[in-house]
Amino acid sequence: MALMITDECINCDVCEPECPNEAIYPGDEIYEIDPTLCTECVGHFDEPQCQQVCPVDCIPLDPDHKETREQLTAKYDALMAAK
């Protein structure tokens, strides 16, 4: 499942540089996550780095983008092949 940033985001800027896939970007009001790039850090780290650094715990799983670990791994592989 991709992650999402809720409206509890305080725009502290700590999550964006932690994302190895560059899936996090500034939105109109809060940071947002591109679900086509988010692999929950599968392939890079054991846990999503944005969740680890978020001071307000506003980065849950996105229920609109359910993916298995295998799908996340395949997405990671495709992203790495495209680089």
Automatic annotation (TrEMBL):
Keywords: 4Fe-4S, Electron transport, Iron, Iron-sulfur, Metal-binding, Repeat, Transport
PANTHER family on file: PHOTOSYSTEM I IRON-SULFUR CENTER, PHOTOSYSTEM I IRON-SULFUR CENTER-RELATED
Record PROSITE patterns: 4FE4S_FER_1, 4FE4S_FER_2
GO molecular function: 4 iron, 4 sulfur cluster binding; metal ion binding
Lineage: superkingdom: Bacteria
InterPro entries for this protein: 4Fe4S_Fe-S-bd, 4Fe4S_Fe_S_CS, PSI_iron-sulfur_center, YfhL-like
4Fe-4S ferredoxin-type domain residues: 1-29, 31-64
Pfam entry (one): Fer4
Lineage of source species: Bacteria, Pseudomonadati, Pseudomonadota, Gammaproteobacteria, Chromatiales
Protein name: Ferredoxin
GO cellular-component term (any): cytoplasm
Keyword Electron transport: yes
